[in-house]
Amino acid sequence: MPPRVLYDKEAVAGAIARLAQEIVARNPKTKSLALVGVKTRGVYLAERIKAQVEKEKKVVLPVGAIDTTLYRDDLNDVAHQHQVKGTQIPFDVNEKIIVLVDDVLYTGRSARAAIDQIMDFGRPKRIELAVLVDRGHRELPIAPDYVGYRVETQEDDVVKVHLAEVDARDEVVIAKRKK
């Protein structure tokens, strides 16, 4: 079965705008707010959310990028798929409200790894999770605070987010996992 487009460019842009609005609504004092994108696509989503918040609130938000590869508990299972891309958190995380931004939430393992890594940088006031797509099937008790879309999936589905910065287009697609 070929990939099927779930959300097009306009739907992705709308979801990002909603995520930004919800983040600001929950955190009106943006002075202590910071975004950390989970590499790769979470970083670009964080940058887009930052732009929306800065446009609306006329503030400058710090943004970092986190590579969870070495923090994963399933590194042996995924190591052949990932290259370490480095983490850049150019601000003090202590007493910050950190919003982790990722493209797809599935088992919760990437989110757990990102939380572990952020805690190695210091002690944030709070860590929240924003995802463009929540596809369910959690293996860990991780729940997003902000969700662009919730998608009902099967275990053998693959949900991919394509972003113009990486893939030359914005869309969310679903396909069956190759056996």
- How many distinct folded domains? 1
Roughly how much helix do the residues carry, as a percent range? 25-40%
- Could you name the ranges where pLDDT drops below 50 across 5 or more consecutive residues? none
Strand content: 25-35%
Radius of gyration: 16 Å
Tell me about the largest β-sheet: 5 strands, parallel
CATH topology heading? Rossmann fold
Describe the strand arrangement of the main beta sheet, using strand numbers: 3-2-4-5-6
CATH architecture classification name: 3-Layer(aba) Sandwich
- Outline type: globular
Give the helix/strand layout.
Layout: E1 4-7, H1 9-26, E2 33-38, H2 41-57, E3 63-66, H3 75-78, E4 97-105, H4 109-121, E5 126-134, E6 146-150, E7 157-162, H5 164-167, E8 171-176
Parallel strand pairs: 2-3, 2-4, 4-5, 5-6
Antiparallel strand pairs: 1-8, 7-8
Helix pairs in contact: 1-2
